[in-house]
Amino acid sequence: MKLVFWVTLAIFLLDQVTKYLVVHVMGLANKLAIEVLPPYLNLRMAWNYGVNFGLFSGDAAATRWILISVALGIILFVVVWMRRDPPGVMGLISAGFLIGGALGNVIDRLVYGAVADFLNMSCCGIENPYAFNVADIAIFIGAFGLILFPSRKKAP
Under 8 Å CB-to-CB from 7, ≥6 apart: which residues? Predict the structure, then answer.
């Protein structure tokens, strides 16, 4: 569980530091867009009140607390899973990625009322209208890793 803790802490800090730098230091909350390597990488401010791609963002106040509760429930589930049936090193790292990313987005919802998304990537003539953040990347990597590296135990 030490490995899960340290990976969680690293991902959480990376997510929160990048959000603080982009939103507050670089002023993306006011500028709304900064071109970095157009069209491949741009910073586009998007306050996400729902889940991926803004789904379920209707009643922002109710949705906020429901999504915080769901995220905390998933974190608790993963922690219990890691304690009861720990996978190998890659599975533990994956759990840390997922937990760290989920905690980062929970903090956003508590502090801002929404998740601060800012990364926008497009390529090959396809304009991507959506933004994401470091926590979203970590959650995806963590969930994918837990599928690939679920447990060390062999089925009977």
Answer: 92, 93, 95, 96, 97, 100
What value does the CA radius of gyration of the chain take, rounded to a whole number of Å?
Answer: 17
Longest CA–CA span in the chain (Å) reads: 58
Q: What is the pLDDT of residue 155?
A: 52
β strands within the chain, DSSP E: 33-37, 41-48, 115-120
Predicted pLDDT of residue 114: 92
Region 42-53: what's the mean pLDDT?
81
- One-letter amino acid of 103: L
CB-based contacts of 3, cutoff 8 Å, min separation 6: 89, 92, 93, 96
In the numeric block, which tokens belong to residue 130? 């959506």
> In Å, how far from its chain's centre is CA 110?
15
Residues annotated catalytic, as ranges? 117, 136
pLDDT of residue 154: 58
Closest CA to 29 of 136, 108, 125: 108
Q: Which amino acid is at 50?
A: G
Whether the per-residue pLDDT at 156 is higher than 60: the answer is no
